[in-house]
Amino acid sequence: MKSLRTLFSHTFTQCGDIGVLSKDEETDLARKIEEGNRIIRESVQSFPLYGKLLKEVSYRAAADDESSSDEDTVDTALRKTIAALDHAMSGLSVPKDNIRKRERLASED
Protein backbone atom coordinates (compact mmCIF):
# COMPACT_ATOMS: atom_id res chain seq x y z
CA MET A 1 0.00 0.00 0.00
CA LYS A 2 2.86 2.37 0.81
CA SER A 3 4.46 1.77 -2.60
CA LEU A 4 1.18 2.64 -4.31
CA ARG A 5 0.97 5.93 -2.38
CA THR A 6 4.59 6.66 -3.24
CA LEU A 7 3.89 5.97 -6.92
CA PHE A 8 0.88 8.30 -6.95
CA SER A 9 2.74 10.97 -5.04
CA HIS A 10 5.70 10.76 -7.40
CA THR A 11 3.43 10.85 -10.46
CA PHE A 12 1.53 13.93 -9.28
CA THR A 13 4.75 15.67 -8.30
CA GLN A 14 6.08 15.15 -11.82
CA CYS A 15 2.84 16.49 -13.30
CA GLY A 16 3.58 19.76 -11.57
CA ASP A 17 6.82 20.02 -13.56
CA ILE A 18 4.99 20.09 -16.90
CA GLY A 19 4.84 23.54 -18.41
CA VAL A 20 1.51 24.91 -19.52
CA LEU A 21 0.76 27.46 -22.19
CA SER A 22 0.11 31.07 -21.32
CA LYS A 23 -3.18 32.58 -22.45
CA ASP A 24 -1.45 34.27 -25.40
CA GLU A 25 0.36 31.05 -26.39
CA GLU A 26 -2.89 29.10 -26.21
CA THR A 27 -4.67 31.72 -28.34
CA ASP A 28 -1.83 31.67 -30.87
CA LEU A 29 -1.88 27.86 -31.02
CA ALA A 30 -5.66 27.82 -31.52
CA ARG A 31 -5.32 30.38 -34.33
CA LYS A 32 -2.65 28.26 -36.04
CA ILE A 33 -4.79 25.13 -35.75
CA GLU A 34 -7.78 26.94 -37.25
CA GLU A 35 -5.61 28.27 -40.08
CA GLY A 36 -4.28 24.77 -40.76
CA ASN A 37 -7.81 23.37 -40.78
CA ARG A 38 -8.88 26.09 -43.24
CA ILE A 39 -5.98 25.30 -45.57
CA ILE A 40 -6.77 21.57 -45.48
CA ARG A 41 -10.49 22.19 -46.02
CA GLU A 42 -9.86 24.46 -49.02
CA SER A 43 -7.33 22.04 -50.50
CA VAL A 44 -9.63 19.03 -50.17
CA GLN A 45 -12.59 20.98 -51.54
CA SER A 46 -10.59 21.68 -54.72
CA PHE A 47 -10.40 17.95 -55.57
CA PRO A 48 -12.92 16.56 -58.09
CA LEU A 49 -13.47 13.62 -55.74
CA TYR A 50 -14.81 16.03 -53.11
CA GLY A 51 -17.38 17.44 -55.55
CA LYS A 52 -18.54 13.95 -56.42
CA LEU A 53 -18.84 12.91 -52.77
CA LEU A 54 -20.59 16.15 -51.83
CA LYS A 55 -23.26 15.46 -54.45
CA GLU A 56 -23.59 11.87 -53.21
CA VAL A 57 -23.96 12.95 -49.59
CA SER A 58 -26.48 15.66 -50.55
CA TYR A 59 -28.58 13.22 -52.59
CA ARG A 60 -28.56 10.64 -49.80
CA ALA A 61 -29.59 13.22 -47.21
CA ALA A 62 -32.45 14.38 -49.46
CA ALA A 63 -33.55 10.82 -50.22
CA ASP A 64 -33.53 9.91 -46.53
CA ASP A 65 -35.40 13.12 -45.63
CA GLU A 66 -32.63 13.96 -43.20
CA SER A 67 -32.65 17.45 -41.83
CA SER A 68 -28.89 17.80 -41.83
CA SER A 69 -27.41 21.24 -42.22
CA ASP A 70 -25.24 22.30 -45.13
CA GLU A 71 -22.31 22.36 -42.71
CA ASP A 72 -22.96 18.72 -41.76
CA THR A 73 -23.14 17.76 -45.44
CA VAL A 74 -19.85 19.54 -46.18
CA ASP A 75 -18.17 17.95 -43.14
CA THR A 76 -19.35 14.48 -44.19
CA ALA A 77 -18.07 15.00 -47.74
CA LEU A 78 -14.73 16.28 -46.40
CA ARG A 79 -14.33 13.27 -44.09
CA LYS A 80 -15.24 10.84 -46.88
CA THR A 81 -12.81 12.50 -49.29
CA ILE A 82 -9.95 12.39 -46.79
CA ALA A 83 -10.75 8.75 -45.94
CA ALA A 84 -10.75 7.82 -49.65
CA LEU A 85 -7.44 9.61 -50.22
CA ASP A 86 -5.92 7.99 -47.15
CA HIS A 87 -7.07 4.56 -48.35
CA ALA A 88 -5.64 5.18 -51.83
CA MET A 89 -2.32 6.41 -50.44
CA SER A 90 -1.93 3.51 -48.03
CA GLY A 91 -1.54 1.18 -50.99
CA LEU A 92 1.20 3.24 -52.60
CA SER A 93 4.87 3.03 -51.89
CA VAL A 94 7.78 5.01 -53.24
CA PRO A 95 10.92 3.03 -53.96
CA LYS A 96 13.77 4.08 -51.66
CA ASP A 97 16.00 4.83 -54.64
CA ASN A 98 13.56 7.53 -55.80
CA ILE A 99 13.56 9.11 -52.35
CA ARG A 100 17.35 9.21 -52.22
CA LYS A 101 17.51 10.67 -55.75
CA ARG A 102 15.00 13.41 -54.85
CA GLU A 103 16.92 14.22 -51.66
CA ARG A 104 20.18 14.45 -53.61
CA LEU A 105 18.61 16.70 -56.28
CA ALA A 106 17.07 18.92 -53.62
CA SER A 107 20.39 19.33 -51.84
CA GLU A 108 22.09 20.30 -55.11
CA ASP A 109 19.66 23.21 -55.63
Number of individual domains: 1
Q: What kind of assembly state do the chains in view correspond to?
A: single chain
Number of strands: 0
| H-E order | HHHHH
> Which value, in Å, is the CA radius of gyration?
23 Å
Summarize the helices and strands and which ones pair or pack.
Blueprint: H1 2-15, H2 23-45, H3 48-63, H4 70-90, H5 96-108
Helix pairs in contact: 3-4
Q: Which keywords apply here?
A:
109 residues, mainly alpha, 5 helices, 80% helix
Overall description:
This protein is mainly alpha-helical and 109 residues long. The protein has helices at 2-15, 23-45, 48-63, 70-90, 96-108. It has one domain. The mean pLDDT is 84.
What would you say about this model in short?
The protein contains five helices and no strands.
